[in-house]
Amino acid sequence: MIKTRKIALSLTIMIFSLMSISLVSSVNITTNTIKIGDIISFGAHTWQVLDIQKGLAFIISEDILELKAYQTNNNGHTWAESSLREYLNGEFYNSNAFSNDDRLRIVQVTNVNDNNQMYEVPGGENTQDRIFLMSIAEAVLYFGDSGYLEYLVREANLMRLRDRSLMNMSHGINDRYNPNRLAIYKGIIYPPAQTVYYNWWLRSPGSNISKASLITAGGIILMSGLSIDIERCGVRPALWIYL
Q1: CB atoms within 10 A of CB 48
Q2: What is the model's pTM?
């Protein structure tokens, strides 16, 4: 069971008429039949339920669905400008991963894209997303908070006061919640008995504008991140849906 705590929904939800939403889709769930930590089917994939609030569920793909670079164009470096955001809210959203009825149940939200607190790298503009990646803060909130993020930020601020550079230092959250953050990528062929975990992207920036943060194959939140043009990093889409 995933350790979570309930929070007020801090996402600005684009209003849809509930009367116009068909409840006939590839997922047959109601508020009373699912709970946080469940694995559910929605569209063509299975999803982990991270939160339930006011008739909505926050879900993330159970496994890594594919490997993609965070940015493949020259439009910029933040989540708002990334090719991965464009792909998730365009090609992936409109693909056969979802039926028309499924798409009606996906909620458009305003994501606050915070700076990387460790390295003080700008997170960019807030975005309107239907499908997105988790942030560092969301990974801590929903998969378990050991207090280590707060400790790292405090230590980073002390180092800056001492005029010590953090730019060449790799930092991550390596704690007892690592197992909660592990994700399998099934696109690589290994012996059937072998479980293979893989890196997966977060939307938060890394230690500079050319990097994005991620979860490593060992479940560590790597705040320093990797280069945004690396193609062999996993994608775990996250979204809010109407129940």
Answers
A1: 22
A2: 0.82
